[in-house]
Amino acid sequence: MEKALKRYSPLFVLPTFLAFVIGFIIPFAEGLYLSFCQFTTVSNAKWTGLSNYKSIFSDKTFLDSFGFTVSFTVASIVFINVFAFCLALLLTKKLAGTNVFRTVFFMPNLIGGIVLGYIWQILINCVLSIIGEPLLALNKPAGYWGLIILMCWQQIGYMMIIYIAGLQNVSDDLLEAAQIDGASSWKTLWRVKLPMVMPSITICVFLTLTNSFKLFDQNLALTGGEPNHTTEMLAMNIYQTFYARAGAQWKGFGQAKAVLFCILVIAISMIQLKATRSREVQQ
User: What is the pTM of this model?
Assistant: First the structure.
C-alpha cells in the first residue's frame, strides 16, 4: 500500500502543479519577455532590448512613487505591528469581553480595500473641511497620513490575531521562571516574551511589508494619486503607465516597471525574512 502511494503520489500533485504553471509561470515568463518589447497586443510585440528599463530611471514619477511607497511602507510596518502587539498583550490577559474585542478589531480586515478607501475618503474630507484644510485632492500630507490610518485600521486586527497565537504559545514554565527570578513585567516582556514571539513577528512584518509595498486599491480609492501624482504608490504608477496612456511604447514601459516592481518586492521580502528569522529562538 505504501509503495503504491509513493508510486502514484505525483498524480495527486499534478493538478496543482499544472494550475501553477498555467496561472503563474507561463504568464510571468511572457510578461518578462514583453518587458523588453514595444507592443499593443501580445501578438504584435517588437523587441527593443533594454530601452524600457533604461527609461525607468529617468522617469521622475516612478522614482517619486518609489520614495513615497518606501516611506509609507516603513511607517505602516512600525504602526501596525506596534499597535497590534500591544492589543495582543492586552487581549491575552484575563479581561471581560476579550472575545468581543478580538472580533471587533478583526472585522475591518473583512471589508474590501476599495470600499474602505471610499469610506475613509469621505470621513477624512469631512474632517478636513471642518478644520478648514484643503481636501485630499489638494493635500499631500493628509493623503499620506490618510493612507497610513486606513492601512492600520484594516490590518491591525489581523496581525493582532497572529500575535495572540504567538503569545499564547509562550511556555508558562518560562514565565514562572522569570517571575521566580524577580524579573519585572517589562523585563519579562523584553527578555522572554519578545524572543519567543519572534516567529509571529517574522510573519507579521512580512505580511505588512508586502501588503504595504504592493498597495493599490486603497490608494486608488482614497487619493487616486492626487495631488499631481504626489500620493501615487508604485502599483498605481504602473497601472497608470500601462492603462492610462495609449501607444506601444507605454505598454512595454509599464511591463518593465511591473517586472522591476516584482523583483523589488521579492528581494526586500527575502532580506526581511532572513533578518527576522536570524533572531528567532527554538522553543
Answer: 0.85
| pLDDT reported for residue 5 | 62
* Residues 219, 140: Cα–Cα separation, whole Å: 13
Residue 135's alpha-carbon distances to 112, 222, 227, in angstroms, are 23, 11, 10
Residue type, 231: T
Distance CA 144, CA 69 (A): 10
Instruction: Round to whole Å and give the CA distance between 253 and 55.
Output: 8
Distance CA 117, CA 217 (A): 8
Q: 61-92 pLDDT, tens per residue?
A: 889 999 999 999 999 999 999 999 999 988 88
To the nearest whole number, what is the mean pLDDT of the chain? 85
What is the C-alpha separation between 30 and 27, in angstroms, rounded?
5
Q: Is-contact 261 63, C-beta < 8 A?
A: no
Q: Which cell numbers in the block locate residue 241?
A: 503607465
End-to-end CA distance of the chain: 36
Q: Is 141 within 8 Å of 228 (Cβ atoms)? A: no
The pLDDT value recorded for residue 282 is: 58
Q: What SS3 state is found at 57?
A: coil
> Over the stretch 100-126, which tens digit does the pLDDT of each residue have?
888 888 888 888 888 888 999 999 999
Q: What's the rounded Cα separation, in Å, for the pair 257 and 97? A: 48
Residues 121-161: tens digit of each pLDDT: 999 999 999 998 888 888 899 999 999 999 999 999 999 99
Least Cα distance to 204 among 121, 272, 114 occurs for: 272
* Chain centroid to CA 228: 24
* DSSP H/E element including 46: strand 46-47
Strand partners, 37: 47
What are the distances in angstroms from CA 130 to CA 61, 105, 120, 127, 226? 32, 28, 15, 5, 20
